[in-house]
Amino acid sequence: MLNPLKKLTSKKITTAILSCIMATSLLTGCGSDSNVRNERPKDELVFVNYRDIRDLNPHLYAGEMYAQEMLYETLITLTDEGYKGVLAESWDISPDGTTYTFHIRDGVKFSDGEVCDAYAIKANFDAIIENKERHTWLEMMHLLDSVSAPDAKTFVIKLTKPYYPMLTELSVTRPFAMISPKAMKNGSTKNGVNEYIGTGPYILKEVVTDEYAIFEANPNYWGEQPKIKKILVKVIPDNQTRIMALEKGEIDLIFGKNMLDVDSIKKFEENSDFTVALSEATSTRQIVLNTTNNILKDKTIRQALQHATNKQAISDGIFYGVEKPADTLFAKTIPYCNIDLKPYVYDTNLAEKMLDEAGWTKGNDGIRMKDGQKLNLSLLYNSDSVTEKSIAEYLQSEYSKIGISLNISGEEEQSYRDKMKAGNFDMVFNICWGTPYDPQSSLAAMRLPVYGDYAAQQGLEDKAQIDEAITNIMISTDEAKRQELYKSVLTRLHDDAVYIPLTYECNKAIYRSDLKGMHFMQTQYEVPFQDMYIE
User: Fold this and answer.
1) CA atoms of 168 and 56, how far apart (whole Å)
2) N or C: which end of the chain has fewer CB within 10 A?
3) Taking a C-beta distance cutoff of 8 angstroms, is the pair 301, 373 a contact?
4) 194-247: per-residue pLDDT in tens?
5) What separation in angstroms does the CA of 520 have from each of 266, 277, 508?
6) Can you spell out the DSSP letters for 97-165?
7) Rounded CA gap, 268 and 511, in Å?
């Protein structure tokens, strides 16, 4: 129950109680099945996450995005019906696509009582621009000319060139969410904020680091009041402990693509007390091939690897079909990506024929050689990901059957990312940016050493043409031309075989069946608490 937990002042007592809740045995004294769930008022919800909410500064990237979405709001949001005004009631775009004029909603206040008008919004943009280098992964930051607030109801953004994903980038969780200017440090947010004060439907009431956080409905919220008035977020790092807590009624909802394993989903599918929900494809799990590698610079080798990769077996054997096999870099449900690309079918005979014709012949040890060099490649994975290790081990075994020696190595996440960004890999696991950043942000980042894409593509003969087309996509104001440019880029990358798409990730949730209003948002990290209620 929430109220007793809030009253606890001793961290030692709090830890003892939560440890009891999370113990794998869940013995008597820690609650009993549906009674625990039914004792809670219907306007209270218990959510769970694998880690603490951390720093909720909306202009930085350390905090949990679902929690930032509860507190802060943006000028607009992206829905399944298109863009919708939030802090801006409406907006106009100049004919040349370079000037955006937002008409700010009346009567909105931050939860500290500060008015959220155009001047407050400009203060937020000034703070974001002060830390511009931190946000250059967003293309609009390169094109930003000026921001202004001619009056309290009008906010204007000017760009040096038109940029079609502008509204999408303004609608995502961060960094363009608004915090009360009074919560900033002398008008700045780049070195932290004094409080987490937004205009959103909830306010943060209490936090015990690495244990729990409590959010309550914002009584002065300008929009429709949420039916769930209080949300307790428990920190439970272990998957099995989370599942047991859900079964015991101690939590109501598990949400997130990395919060649930396939076994848990299968376990709950036939249980009428709970609902299992899976979204459409949100992102693509892939292997990136480094075209500067002495072996992988040959497109024939890269294409042979495509044909040697049994994606259906990976989907069935590792994900039990929950993640579907991926034929292309982006799913066809992603905007601009429903184009006709011929999949690389799984065909080991064809793969071997291609390797033979490329001059790689099998030696006595079964490994292929050419000009005294063995066909020896390395695959880097994130050692924190059990899934990536499992796939790597499977591919190591499968590729050996056609004469490819695959060395697999895992690195902790930061080291793995550093190596990927520096191009220190032959093959590396990656996941595209996902909705709503795909395809535009994933492609835009390929032109800069943001992740491994830039380094991996340096050996492509058509790299300059690909980059130029991506740039033209971003500034195009002609929808038909933009689609043709996307088709050109995605076709080139597909034919160049730089990426081995493995499976399409999806968002996942398991929740008590009397919890209604649960649905997936356009932003994969947003949890629709405001739409939820308990029957």
Assistant:
1) 21
2) C
3) no
4) 999 999 999 999 999 999 999 999 999 999 999 999 999 999 999 999 999 999
5) 20, 9, 9
6) S-EEEEEEPTT-B-TTS-B-SHHHHHHHHHHHHHTGGGGTTSTHHHHEEEEEEEETTEEEEEESS--TT
7) 10
296 Cβ contact list (under 8 Å, min separation 6): 289, 290, 302, 377, 426, 427, 459
* Closest-CA residue to 534 (of 240, 311, 235, 226): 226
pLDDT exceeds cutoff 80 at 32: no
CA angle 192, 230, 256 (to 5 degrees): 70
CA angle 431, 433, 435 (to 5 degrees): 120
**Amino acid, res. 283:** S
Residue with tokens 């250059």: 136
Q: How far apart are CA 437 and CA 523, in angstroms?
A: 9
Backbone φ, ψ for residue 500 (5° rounding): -105, 95
Work out the number of other CB atoms within 10 angstroms of the CB of residue 298.
Answer: 17
What is the C-alpha separation between 227 and 71, in angstroms, rounded?
16
pTM, 2 dp: 0.85
Phi/psi at 265 (nearest 5 deg)? -60, -45
Q: Using one digit for the tens of pLDDT, what is the confidence trace for 234-273?
A: 999 999 999 999 999 999 999 998 899 888 999 999 899 9
Cα-based angle 150, 153, 155 (whole degrees, multiple of 5):
55
- Shortest CA distance to 471 belongs to which of 494, 492, 489? 489
CB 397 within 8 A of CB 406: no
Q: Which two tokens stand for residue 254?
A: 């598990």
- Distance linking the first and last C-alpha atoms of the chain: 18
Distances (CA, A) of 337 to 24, 156, 333, 419, 432: 45, 32, 7, 29, 14
Q: How far apart are CA 198 and CA 200, in angstroms?
A: 6
Q: Report the pLDDT averaged over residues 469-498.
A: 96
Q: Which residues of 455-482 are buried (b: 16+ CB within 10 A; e: fewer)?
A: bbbebbeebeebbebbbebbbbeeeeeb
